[in-house]
Amino acid sequence: MELTTRLVSVILFLLVIRVGCSASPHHWRKKRVGEPCKKLVFYFHDIIYNGHNGKNATSAIVGTPAWGNRTILAGHNHFGDVVVFDDPITLDNNLHSPPVGRAQGFYIYDKKDIFTAWLGFSFVFNSTQLRGTINFAGADPLMNKTRDISVIGGTGDFFMTRGVATLSTDAFEGEVYFRLRADINLFECW
Ligand SMILES: *[C@@H]1O[C@H](CO)[C@@H](O)[C@H](O)[C@H]1NC(C)=O
Ligand SMILES: *[C@@H]1O[C@H](CO)[C@@H](O)[C@H](O)[C@H]1NC(C)=O
Ligand SMILES: *[C@@H]1O[C@H](CO)[C@@H](O)[C@H](O)[C@H]1NC(C)=O
Ligand SMILES: *[C@@H]1O[C@H](CO)[C@@H](O)[C@H](O)[C@H]1NC(C)=O
Predict the structure, then answer these.
(1) Among protein residues, the one whose CA lies closest to atom 14 of ligand 2
(2) Residue 38 included in any domain
(3) Which of 48, 78, 92, 138 sits CB 3.0–4.6 Å from 73 for a disulfide?
(4) Where are the beta strands (DSSP E) in 74-141?
(5) Contact 101, 86 (CB under 8 A)
(6) Is residue 9 in contact with ligand 1, taking CB distance under 6 Å?
(7) Is residue 135 situated within a structural domain?
(8) Best mutation site among 71, 78, 81, 175 for ligand 2, i.e. most ligand atoms within 8 A of its Cβ?
(9) Is Secreted among the key words of this record (predicted)?
């Protein structure tokens, strides 16, 4: 007797959970986000190792599918290539401007039929003006003029921050150099 009552209540509980889940997509709660508490613009510069530029390269292919190699980005929109980078960050779009920090992390080309990537990296600052990190993660559909990726946290001057960074490709030279502009809007500042 006791067992059936328990079973019935478990089933009812599961039903309630199901209804709760299926109701959400169309009623996604839209909370208003205020103005950003901080706006920042930076550029970072990626020089991909190509077999000849070992001295200047700031990034390297560290993983590739069976049909590729680690010297040249693979075919099929570079699908499967994993690139690690340690790029200089500058305040303007000049590669030779004094760097204010480093963009460090990786990107993964993650779709065969279009050119797109997934980014996970940090801006690392260690100067008298800026100290700390801003951490980024998200999909980077490279063919979009602008792409929004998440600012998922920070340390130091950016303690516990969150926000959105709008990336745009500011320059692109074959498969050796590109420059990204990051317009960072932080919505949580401490
Ligand atoms: C490395 O960078 C310097 C300065 O920009 C440039 O003059 C040189 O040609 C570059 N070397 C290679 C191998 O790309
Ligand atoms: C890497 O692949 C490219 C293009 O497929 C090829 O031209 C190059 O010779 C390969 N390099 C090595 C070191 O295998
Ligand atoms: C940051 O800069 C300070 C002072 O220049 C230096 O002592 C420290 O080692 C640096 N830290 C890192 C992680 O580079
Ligand atoms: C890419 O561009 C499309 C169309 O302009 C837009 O709807 C979409 O949100 C963009 N994606 C990202 C991740 O920014």
Answers:
(1) 69
(2) yes
(3) 78
(4) 82-90, 101-109, 117-126, 131-140
(5) no
(6) no
(7) yes
(8) 71
(9) yes
pLDDT at 30: 73
| Residue 83: CB atoms within 10 Å | 22
> Residue 128 corresponds to which tokens in the numbers above?
């008298």
The domain that holds 181 is classified in CATH as 2.40.480.10
Asked if the structure places residue 130 within a domain, the reply is yes
How many domains does the chain divide into? 1
144: Cβ below 6 Å to ligand 4?
Answer: yes
Q: Which ligand is nearest to the CA of 166?
A: 4
- Residues (pLDDT < 70) of the chain are 1-29
Six-digit token string for 34: 């205020």
Whole-model pTM? 0.82
Atom of ligand 2 nearest to the CA of 74: 5
